[in-house]
Design goal:
Largest sheet: 8 strands, mixed
Distance between the termini: 34 Å
Strand order of the largest sheet: 5-6-10-7-11-14-12-13
Shape: elongated
CATH architecture of the largest domain: 3-Layer(aba) Sandwich
CATH topology of the largest domain: Aminopeptidase
Number of strands: 14
Order of helices and strands: EHHEEHHEHEEEHEEHEHHHHEEHEHEH
Number of domains: 2
Number of helices: 14
Bound molecules: zinc ion
Length: 395
């Protein structure tokens, strides 16, 4: 919600007026100098929307404000051209409304169009969330990273490294919405006060690593050469539910230089719906963008969300640090998911991350069944994952 500064207003005053922590108001207005507000300047108030209201007989600011438990001055602020002593019936005014429910519904076919619409909605409501394009997919879709918070501890989550595991994006986005609601409304999640995380943690999220692949699985092959090529790789089969790779048939989670040669030896030798590790490591723009991001951000902890199995892979060749065990034990406690240290699988993002940075990295396999997991499991998976999200912030 936008407001226009009046004489004597301050960001601190807005924080009191709307009962939103000052830090979120400051961070929602990066171009604004809090000590030099100009009259008429626009300031964004996170976690609020302005809603139209039509004046009825007997209405006063006091009556409207008290029935909605908002302050009279918040009405005055939003309606600076209205004379409260003279409001004709039928006059349209603006009423500030605190946002207390989600705009993200993860329980739907969550392709890149839905993602972008939800991202736009969240960024408008919560302008303190930072959004950046970290690269483009093969088809030129932006690979979006979100950042929330400003702590020295950088925690990273990603989803949909594998196309037919797109439900991971939906789970991440719905939790992000719940986190933003809890932050701005001073609420807890599972009894935990999440407010302090904002100052302690910088949360980095890439919700959809493989947007072309996700759209292929959910919406079918796109018009043009990329769609034709994918159809050919899929042996002419129009059903893409088994597709894990990016649009040109490279498995992005087999692309990393961490014993990549072992995978190259035993996996498909050419583009394929799944498992082809590429002709070399790091040939695909999506895999490269994620490697560069790890280098840039220096994650303290990395969680890659996949499906399925209700297990958490947490080791790589014994190179993981001792804290990895402590953290994965907590993940198990809060989710019931089974930790697995080593498995005969290489060249994944988690493997490479542990190899290069020696920091805790995890592949979290959500849910149980055959990929793509049906949406009927969404709510259950979401409930299981909340604890892991929170633990990744406090551990
Ligand atoms: Zn996967």
């Amino acid at each position: 919600m936008d407001v226009n500064v009046r004489s004597g207003d301050s960001l601190w005053y807005y924080s009191q007026l709307f009962n939103v922590p000052l830090t979120f108001i400051i961070d929602s207005n990066p171009g604004v100098d809090p000590s030099a507000l100009a009259i008429g300047q626009t300031v964004r108030i996170p976690g609020y929307r302005s809603e139209p209201y039509t004046i009825e007989a007997g209405d006063t600011f006091w009556k409207i404000a008290s029935s909605r438990r908002i302050s009279m001055d918040s009405l005055a602020l939003l309606n600076q051209n209205v004379n409260p002593q003279n409001m004709p019936i039928g006059l349209l005014i603006q009423v500030p409304s605190r946002v207390t429910s989600r705009i993200v519904n993860g329980n739907q076919s969550y392709d890149s169009t839905v993602l972008n619409s939800d991202l736009n909605g969240l960024l408008a409501l919560y302008p303190f969330v930072r959004s950046e394009s970290i690269g483009q997919s093969v088809m030129g879709k932006d690979l979006i990273e979100l950042q929330i918070g400003k702590g020295p501890k950088v925690v990273h989550w990603n989803g949909s490294f594998h196309a037919n595991e797109w439900i991971t994006t939906a789970v991440i986005m719905q939790f992000l919405n719940d986190y933003l609601l809890a932050l701005t409304n001073g609420e807890t999640i599972r009894g935990l006060d999440v407010g302090p995380f904002y100052e302690e943690v910088t949360l980095s999220i890439v919700p959809m690593v493989d947007p072309d692949g996700v759209d292929l699985v959910l919406d079918g092959p796109p018009q043009g050469p990329f769609g034709e090529q994918a159809l050919q790789i899929n042996n002419g089969n129009m059903a893409f539910s088994g597709w894990k790779a990016n649009i040109r048939g490279v498995d992005l989670n087999n692309q990393y230089p961490a014993n990549w040669e072992i995978e190259a030896e035993r996996k498909p030798k050419e583009p394929s719906p799944r498992d082809f590790p590429g002709y070399q490591p790091l040939t695909e723009p999506e895999a490269i963008a994620m490697a560069e991001l790890a280098q840039e951000r220096q994650f303290e902890k990395m969680l890659a969300f996949h499906t399925q199995g209700e297990v958490i892979y947490w080791g790589y060749e014994g190179l993981e640090p001792p804290q990895s065990l402590v953290i994965v034990n907590e993940f198990e406690r809060v989710s019931g998911y089974q930790p697995i240290r080593n498995v005969y699988s290489f060249a994944g993002y988690k493997d490479w991350f542990i190899l290069v940075y020696r920091k805790p990295g995890f592949t979290v396999e959500l849910g149980r069944g055959v990929n793509p997991l049906p949406l009927s499991q969404f709510d259950e998976i979401y409930q299981e994952t909340i604890g892991i999200f929170l633990a990744s912030l406090y551990m």
